[in-house]
Every structure is written in C-alpha cells, then in structure tokens.
Amino acid sequence: MSLRAFHVFFITISVLLCLGFGAWCLGSEYAQGKWAYTAAGIVSFLLGLALVFYEIAFLKKTKDLE
What we know:
The protein has helices at about 5-25, 35-60. It is mainly alpha-helical. The N and C termini lie close together (about 10 Å).
C-alpha cells in the first residue's frame, strides 16, 4: 500500500468517525437538552466536512503521482 493510498484511507476513516460521532452527539437520548453535546456534534460535523474538502484537494494535487 502506497503512502498516498494510506493517506486517503486514513482521511476517509477520519471523516466517517467525525460524522458518526456528530450523529451520536445530536441523536443520543442521553445528550438531549445538554448544550455541550449539541456543540460537540456541530463541531464534529464541521470537521468532517472540512476533512472531505481536504481529501478532495489532496486527490487533485496528487493525481499524477500514481
């Protein structure tokens, strides 16, 4: 596995973890009515979105390396 492929895999897993954590924070019965969980969920979704844009930029920048 090349370093580029590992990087893409790692960023993809990071995106999935951010989105999953954000969904858990916003949808958990335990977290209802607690502002810290709402804030953590929103921040997690925003970080997941930022990672998606980063991965797209990385793929465009390194498309000629394969």
